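Page 42, continued from yesterday. The earlier attempt failed because a stray header line got pasted into the input along with the sequence. Redoing it now with the clean sequence only.
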Amino acid sequence: MKKLITILLLTAAIAPARAQYSKDNPRGLADKAFNNKDYYEAAYYYRKAAEGMSLVTQQSIPYSGGGKTAKVKEGKVSDRAYISFQLGESYRGYENYLEAEPWYYRVLEEGNEAQFPLARLWYGVCLRANQHFDEAIKQLTDFNLAYKGDAKYRAVAEKEIMNCRFAKEQYKYPLLIEVTKRKGSWFSDGSDYAMYLKDGMSYFTSSRFAKDEKTHVNRLYMLKNDGSGQPEQVKFKDDAGVKSKDLEYGTPAFTPDGQHLYFTRWFKVGSKSTYAIYTSRKGSDGVWGTPEKLNSNVNAEGFNSIQPFITADGKQMYFVSTKPGGQGGDDIWVADLNGDGTPTNSTNLGSTVNTTQNEQAPYYDVLTKRLVYSSKGFTGLGGFDFFEAFNKDGNWSTPMNMGYPMNSAKDDLYYVPDPADANKFYISSDRESDCCLNLFEAHDKRHTLSGLVIDCDTRKALPGVKVSFVDSLNKQTIYSIVTDKTARYSFNVKTSRPYSLVLEKQGYFTKVLPVPASGGEMQGDTLFNADICLQAFKVDKPIVIKNVLYDYDKATLRPESKEVLNDLITIMKDNPKIKVELAAHTDSKGSDKYNLALSQRRAQACVDYIVSMGIAEDRIYAKGYGESHPIASNKLPNGKDNPVGRQLNRRTEFTVIKVE
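This time it went through. Structure tokens are written below.
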């Protein structure tokens, strides 16, 4: 819930302490704030202490600035190391990895790793969060080789190394999803997150500065889905027992009829925050009634429950809780609701969905039985990542990371689809912020690759073709089908990773085609149509290669002839088990001996070009037949010359002579 308590709120909390600030004891104030987990305030005072020691200077830090490290003028070495490490810890405490990174680096650079052995681990984590994956892997590996302390920290390093490797692959070949921050009225000087769409309105949480309040606190707001107008705060009748100015509200969810609103309500007493899920009923006057805390099925005494989500049928509420019976930390739970929206039970979703770390922000589609939620417990890009799992007969599938750019190196939560556009959804993320969640709009450009397989000669639909969707990098088959009588194929393209279609049928040349990265239908052989044709062949039956041209009385290939031969090269690459004879023929002009030699030189010119393009010499050989194998008459019945027949006889052919 770190992102629920915004940095702006923490900034406001510092103000009273600043009035008591002593120039002689910033470290004491920092330590007190740090022990209370007020990391933003701690960073403020540790930085004041660092300034007194001349530590806040332009530093030579990898990925974080340039210049030379200034000489330290004040403070003991141990004090400087302590302040540097604590600054890193404080910045990391509120997930400001950009500011944390150089302070951990200073600890290492100045030789204080023995005093603070975790500095290299957290430096590596910061590098990962700041997307310097190779250097992060190096630092984390070095940490694990040297560290002899608690094994849980080596486990953290191993997980972060896996995250780095996963992230490198994801960033290289992202999902076909476009994610952009929402502008205009959606964006504020605070946090904006956890959108819920209902009846043409968007309800969301924001800590934007409200005119009638003196500090930035989280409240529920509503705004038209099209973004027009200004956000209006959702008001409730007064809560009993706690002053409203001490309360914060977030993560709205509605019953299908829109009469019940569920949300997280929390407040802070001292350094402890208490979270619970409440509901409010809309009165006949349209005003939301006094929030009522849900029963112990959801809100267990002494534990936190947050982030309700109501299913589209209104029968269940998914939520997050630390209550007993979970796997550890924040877990996803589900409760059945009775007719008036009251929870009648609650069930932990189990160890397949939940981990010993934190899971948050569930969304569940009752039609597809698809759960989308955020977790820190699986391999991902870092922070909270989106995962999806499916429920089949009460059992959950293994959660799958939903990839970049839906996920980032920061925190990504609160998935919600747009009911008016199946290819549009919204998320909350701090990927473009050092502190706070913002609302993002995502457009799903993943598409279906589909088309028709036909016979190249007859142009008729070709059933019985095995069509495989193959990863072009690791050569693994993602999915295969065999065409039925319709001869159609269809595959889902999700990422920009290079893929290929492999089409195979006995008696036909195998064909391998790259999958276009853009959306829409498969563009086919020529990239201008959706049909893919397969060429039939029989062993020892010649196939004419049209338009292989030579200059008169020469065996030198013309440029346009090479383009035609490229098709044969493609066939041979796609069919590595075939061996081919490349034959050249002439008409009857000239002597038999001369034509035989000319045809041999022409056939050899073709073979030489094909071999130069990477085809093994033992798979193709040249054969000149001269004028000995005409396929048409060189003369007309009246004895005159037959130019059409001679043209047909001046041909180049290839023949499959063996299939291994």
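Notes: The radius of gyration is 35 Å.
Reminder to self: strip header lines before submitting.
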